[in-house]
Specification:
Spore Coat Polysaccharide Biosynthesis Protein SpsA, Chain A, alpha/beta, single chain, seven-stranded mixed β-sheet, 16% strand
Length: 232
């Protein structure tokens, strides 16, 4: 069995090497790993570092000539992936790759087609940060659940795991963070078996490089309506 770790990257020079080393260090026993990093036209030196690390660490790297957004980077990464299972990993240090085994477990055991991590379920550690961000995340999850009839606790989470069969049937249209509600609507409509696993979260501040903003929240609302009511 093979796992593809798809990492969208944009201006993550300070954390990139550390997150790649962390992913490579994860012990998954008999599961082979491939890393597919997609540089979304970084401007801080990340592009040059990725070119260097591509050979040094033996990872796949795709490059965008124009900045398009996380969803576009994931679309490119999914196409380049060859694994039986695909997991999304952000290039910052907010999410811990050591949690891969429990995220993969429902799929490996044949119980799930899709697994979501959840920052709001379970007893794992969380950095205490923005109140209104947590309110926004929970509101978007609630709104999404109302249309999908799922009972997710964290629709906007980075950690999403898919079987290759599910990914092969999906067309990602959103270029930015609208990917999250889009993909949730689509896997729900496909009738996928979806599991949720509690994860830890070491969120960062805007001064530390956090990118998602209030405009993305409004876009997410539109995407929930669009992909559940308009584009079916």
């Amino acid at each position: 069995m093979k796992l593809s770790v798809v990492i969208p990257v944009y201006n993550e020079l300070e954390t990139l090497r550390e997150i790649l080393d962390a992913v490579l260090a994860v012990d998954l026993e008999d599961i082979e790993k491939e890393i597919v990093a997609v540089d979304d036209c970084s401007t801080d030196g990340t592009t040059d570092l990725l070119k260097k690390l591509s050979d040094e660490l033996g990872i796949k790297v795709q490059f965008h000539e124009v900045n398009q957004g996380k969803g576009a980077a994931l679309r490119t990464g999914f196409k380049a992936s060859t694994g039986d299972i695909i997991i999304i990993q952000d290039a910052d240090l907010e999410y811990d790759p050591n949690e891969y085994p429990k995220l993969l477990k429902p799929i490996i055991k044949g119980k799930a087609d899709v697994v979501y991590g959840s920052r709001f379920a379970g007893g794992e550690s969380h950095r205490v940060l923005y109140f209104w961000h947590s309110v926004g995340n929970k509101f978007l999850t609630l709104l999404s659940n109302m249309f999908t009839n799922l009972n997710l606790t964290d629709m906007e989470v980075c950690y999403k795991v898919f079987t290759k069969d599910v990914i092969s049937q999906l067309t990602v249209c959103e270029n930015r963070f609208g990917f999250e509600p889009e993909i949730t609507a689509k896997v729900s409509r496909m009738g996928c078996r979806i599991y949720e696993v509690g994860i830890s979260y070491a969120g960062r501040t805007y001064s530390e490089g956090k990118k998602i903003g209030w405009r993305d929240g409004f876009r997410a609302i539109w995407c929930i309506l669009k992909y559940n009511l308009i584009e079916k």
